[in-house]
Design brief:
Layout lengths: L3 H16 L8 H14 L3 H12 L10 H4 L2 H8 L23
């Protein structure tokens, strides 16, 4: 069956997410790592070697330099706020209904 491992991994992830619907449906580090490892399993051996070499050459210290760890890099970068551009935004609901004038 073509795509068998992907289909199984997707089904397991979907089942897990729906069975834990009382929690936030965020991936978190573990979810990103699992997706990266599934993707890595589909790479041809030559491509996998090249990707591994590219990741190993990384100079930052936010994550380890393997595919699973690097999948969490954007979140680590965001949380580290290295460039100082991240601002927390608080959303407040207001009583204005769509189409009505704002207070």
């Amino acid at each position: 069956m073509r795509g068998g491992p992907f289909v199984v991994a997707f089904a397991l992830a979907a089942t897990f997410n729906f069975s834990h619907s009382h929690e936030a449906l965020a991936w978190g580090d573990e979810g990103h790592e699992v997706v990266a490892l599934v993707a890595q399993s589909f790479l041809d051996p030559d491509v996998r070697k090249k990707v591994t070499a590219l990741l190993a050459a990384g100079a930052d210290a936010l994550t380890a330099h393997d595919m699973a760890s690097e999948a969490t890099w954007p979140d680590k970068y965001r949380d580290a706020n290295i460039d100082g551009s991240r601002q927390r935004t608080t959303f407040r609901s207001n009583s204005a209904k769509p189409g009505s004038a704002a207070p």
